[in-house]
Design goal:
GO molecular function: oxidoreductase activity
Structural class: alpha/beta
Number of domains: 1
Strand content: 5-15%
Protein name: Methylenetetrahydrofolate reductase
Order of helices and strands: HEHEHEHEHHEHEHEHHHHEHH
Distance between the termini: 48 Å
Radius of gyration: 19 Å
Keywords: Oxidoreductase
CATH architecture: Alpha-Beta Barrel
InterPro entries: FAD-linked_oxidoreductase-like
Shape: globular
CATH class: Alpha Beta
Length: about 300
């Protein structure tokens, strides 16, 4: 399907307005064991019921992952650990991880992805292979998320197309229709709304109805964001940061994703059937900074506060 090039842009939602509040409300956030250790009390930082993803970076002991999951679960947060296929050697290791998460932290949610490793450590190289084992279904996992790539993925489609990604998404859509697990696409972050909107609309047109949990990079120094964006293979929307970096007056100021969030919120308000269901924050500038920013967007607008 051709991309929609002549869309009339919706008026951007302003911070503190109902459209933006509705869009951000119920956000999820990502942590790693080493970053979680720096947070004294998650309950003082995140709204009750916030889903917390735990990123599993190569080399992180499973014991540290499970301990972080247990801490967050004990604090009342739904926990969604990463299962990166390429660092899982075989079905025995996968079964062991599932059993540990369930037995020690009561986990019933998972993000399944290939992982950022070039060469697989063993039998698995994709999230589809993890799903095909049936182990998550046997363990009674109720929610399974898989990766989405609004600007494509050069690791999967080296030619710059989205042919392989699209084929995988069609398989995952079919899988969701024949199982009881709730599924969604947790996406890579991007810095521009239009590519995200075009991608989401193309998925809907092709019959891929998995809800989208859109990845958004939280506030951070511009240099930090550019470094992460290049490392994670962010696509053309990287030019938003590069253009900003050319302005010396903006170079030293932290980036905030308000513009992209406002544009997406306005589009969602004007198009209720739009496939984005939730916002997922990558706290690249720190968990506390990101959570405070997100919570600030949820706060009532000044005029609303004055009236109460």
């Amino acid at each position: 399907m051709a991309l929609l090039k002549f869309r009339r842009p919706a008026e951007a939602a302003r911070p503190g307005t109902p459209a933006l509040q509705d869009f951000v409300r119920g956000y999820s956030i990502e942590v790693m064991p080493r970053t979680a250790e720096k947070v004294e009390d998650f309950r003082a930082l995140l709204p009750a019921g916030t889903r917390v993803y735990i990123a599993h970076i190569e080399g992180t002991p499973i014991e540290d992952m499970v301990a972080t999951a247990r801490r967050l679960a004990d604090d009342g947060f739904p926990v969604m650990p990463h299962f990166p296929a390429r660092i899982i050697r075989d079905e025995a290791m996968l079964a062991d991880w599932i059993a540990r998460y369930q037995g020690e932290a009561g986990v019933t949610q998972a993000l399944l992805l290939a992982g950022g490793v070039t060469e697989p450590h063993g039998a698995f190289h994709s999230s589809i292979q993890l799903l095909e084992t049936g182990l998550f279904d046997k363990a009674g996992f109720t929610r399974l998320h898989v990766a989405g790539h609004p600007e494509g993925n050069r690791d999967i489609d080296p030619d710059g197309s989205d042919a392989n990604v699209a084929q995988a998404l069609r398989w995952k859509q079919a899988f969701s229709e024949r199982t009881d697990a709730e599924m969604a696409l947790a996406t890579q972050f991007a810095f521009e709304a239009d590519p995200i909107i075009d991608w989401a609309e193309r998925l809907q047109a092709e019959g891929i109805a998995l809800p989208i949990h859109i990845g958004i990079a939280g506030p951070a120094k511009l240099q930090t964001l550019i470094r992460f964006a290049v490392a994670c293979g962010v696509g053309p929307s990287l030019k938003v940061l590069q253009k900003r970096a050319m302005d010396v007056t903006k170079l030293v100021m932290p980036y905030e994703p308000t513009d992209v969030l406002s544009a997406l919120a306005a589009h969602k308000a004007a198009n209720p059937g739009f496939g984005i269901e939730q916002v997922h924050f990558f706290p690249l500038g720190g968990i506390k900074t990101c959570a405070e920013y997100a919570n600030g967007l949820l706060a009532a607008a000044p005029a609303e506060r004055a009236a109460t």
